[in-house]
Amino acid sequence: MSPSPKMHADELDIDEALVRRMVAAQFPQWADLPVELVDSAGTSNAMYRLGADLVVRIPRIPGAAEDIGKEHAWLPRLALGLPVAVPAPVGLGEPADGCPWPWSVLRWLEGANPVAGRVAEPALLSADLASFVTAMYRVDPVGGPASYRSETLAARDGAVRRALAALTDVVDTEAVTSLWDLALRAPDHPGPPVWIHADLQPGNLLVDGAGRLSAVIDFGCVGLGDPAVDLLPVWYVLPASVRDAFRTAVGADAAAWARGRGWALSVALMELDYYRETNLRMARTARYVIGELLAAHVGDA
Asked: For the whole model, what pTM was predicted?
């Protein structure tokens, strides 16, 4: 059996045997397909490949359970207006013995996760990401749910400072605090909320052999919010050489750019604090993001 490694105190016990039992009981047409744990940096859901064409997605923690229904409701609608593939739900599982929450079966999407700052075709990937982000912005917002990250930066201040207090031996807290204070001074988004993915990190992006964006996955944070949240890949994925091009392509003004820095910094700090011992891949990425933000801040000074 391949258990999914645990990262949370209240995490479900998930392994191949559980996946096989749930699939056999609720989707007998797929009962004979092989099941294999997917190596993923994901933190809210465990992923098990089911045969060649499917993947099972099971919430690890209670807070992720409601995302399953949201994805089944909205992914087919969002997919119609997006320039790259997104997960296509094909089965909605019900709570079962060993899994008290809904779970899902989706189409498998091929591709590899880009490595932060070391992408093969920076200019092409930058253009692809900008195309995806702006397409999300254009989706009709009527009836859309609030994004998981729909609050203002000011509302994140307490959590950011708690993370900083816990990371005094890990980051330059004086420099990072200065950068965070600067982000807090940026004006709030002046317009109505728009559709955002809200978690455009390397683990949620797939690129093909030519270095082009082939798919975006994990829409657990999706919803309506500040468009600046989807500037995350500027710091999480793209090298400095193409950041201006991305900014121009998505039309981010100075205030949005400043808020985007704040979002990237706040997310990275909380991830580094929470996952530095339980998810080393995510912790490494968070360290990289903080370093890039500080370097850019020094360069702009």
From this structure: 0.94
